[in-house]
Amino acid sequence: MTGGEPVRDMPAWARGIGRVLAHGVWDARVVGAEHVPAEGPVLFAANHTSVVDGPILAGVVPRPVHILVKEEMFRGPIGAVLRASGQIPVDRTGGGRAALTAALGVLQRGGAVGVFPEGNRGRGDAASARAGVAWLAVNGHAPVIPVAMLGTRRTGESVGHIPGLRRRLHVELGAPVHVERRPGMSRRDVTAAAIEEIRDALSALVADASARARFELPTD
Asked: What is residue 8's three-state secondary structure?
């Protein structure tokens, strides 16, 4: 897929692979799926610690989702699967504009998009967030579902580490964040406020879910 082409619908087999990975290869427990609207545009904003976060997100959310994935992953057999399943490559050297435009197209046709607002894999505490998720929420008129993903990486494991078979994971979906443009606010002001609101909601969800489920975030 290039920046000028629409994102293809996610096929059933791709969702099936996600479910097998999340619930067969690993043991993902999911909380809060009732927060996800059954139809209409929606953004899933998840924290990010591991290379497997994307496939697990695709396997646990109750709707087909098109996830923004760094362009370097779109190589070889994995790249072929990502393209065929309708995932969206992000060229970070170009600011990701083509990816945002493609994701906006998904939202405008009532679809679901998954993003990792932190941008890079790390501790996963959602202490920072990039502007792309807020831009999509504002321009796509989409509620944002914060997603806490816990257990995919432990302290001492590299960000590229693959969790062992049947490792227990905890995924918690929070209440939707609705970004509203109040009278007199410019689109830029709305986006800036949305970044803070989304980051705060995701950070709070990660901290609360970690305490409730007794999953510690990696410290490195």
From this structure: coil
